[in-house]
Amino acid sequence: MTTLTSREFNQDVGRAKREARLEPVFITDRGRPSHVLLSFEAFRQITGQTESLVDLLAMAESPAAEAEFESRSRWETREERF
Length: 82
Fold this sequence. Notes:
Elements: E1 2-5, H1 6-11, H2 13-22, E2 25-29, E3 32-37, H3 40-47, H4 53-60, H5 63-81
Parallel strand pairs: 1-2
Antiparallel strand pairs: 2-3
């Protein structure tokens, strides 16, 4: 298990990313764990996500995905007003 302080993480993000390919990296803030950096593959395994990038891109071409994107865009626009 790799543990980095917030300062170490900020000074060497590349190291954190390399370590995260092998195992989760715990990032501490004032000595307490505050974040965990995972590889995307590890995240997919933990969440049970089975879609590949190709599947997700194919979904983006469907009309349902367009409708979802449009609704998100409207929401973001409303958020920006406030």
